[in-house]
Amino acid sequence: MKQSASKQTFNLKTLTKSTVWDIQENDVFRMLDSGSKDAEIKDNLRHYIDIIRSAFSMEELSEDKPEIRKPYEKQGYKVGAITIDENSKMILAIRKRPIMRVTDLTYENIRHITASKLIEVLERNFGGGWDSLSQSIQDIIESGFDISTTTLPKDRLHKKGGMYEKKVADGYEVLEVEKGTWVEAIFAKLKPEIIKPRMKFDMDEEGELSDDEHYDNQEEEEIDEFNEDDINEDNYRTTFTIESDPDEEAEELSEFGSDE
């Protein structure tokens, strides 16, 4: 799983619909309050609010009074004030969206939960095993977790040296779904995050491409300059081997025999 919000520095300009799952309600208040002093953020506030709403429920309160705050606080909301300008403030109730059911899982939040949390979600929704999940939910889960399953009789599932023991030793969390006298075991482990390498070009001291890079680019340009009009029967040739089809040969022999 990615680093927690306490170990990272977040601001509205760098927040995405994925990283927003790493922050908590207090972080939202802090970022919105500091963002009110940034003209660029104020001009695009709706965009940032949409990102926050993808992971948080937000309600604007009419007044900051106990009788108005308490109903929200009982539901797990954090209530706070956001500075709009020197003369006005906005009272907001904010709550992180819970991930309780498989339908709460998205491509944006799947890598921001642990394998044990995923098992809790699956256990809360399960009945028919892994195959009972829709293909779209399976795809979301498998985008962030390595999933494997096995179905065995109860007395064989925990056999010493078997798949169950090896998977648990390798760090997998497991959910057991009973199916009569058999048990389906679903193993889950967070996939390592893959960072795609970027191409790097060698530069000389003046910031120009090296001679090798220029040479490579020149070769590419020469290939692009190929002209089909220059092809004629004297300079064009293609060589390939034509292999006979055994079925066609057999058919021709058959026809030859029938003529006799």
Structure summary:
This protein is an alpha+beta fold and 260 residues long. The chain is 36% helix and 18% strand.
Q: From the alpha-carbon coordinates, what is the Rg to the nearest angstrom?
A: 31 Å
**Distance between the first and last residues' Cα:** 79 Å
Q: How many helices in DSSP terms?
A: 10
Low-confidence stretches: 1-7, 217-226, 235-244, 249-260
Largest sheet, in brief, is: 3 strands, antiparallel
Q: Output the structural class.
A: alpha+beta
Q: What sequence of helices (H) and strands (E) makes up the elements? A: HHHEHEEHHEHHEEHH
Give the strand order of the largest sheet, numbering strands 1, 2, ... along the chain.
1-3-2
Using the alpha-carbon principal axes, give the shape: elongated
Query: Oligomeric form of this entry?
Result: single chain
Strand percentage lies at 15-25%
* Beta strand count: 6
Mean pLDDT: 80
Proportion of residues in helical segments: 25-40%
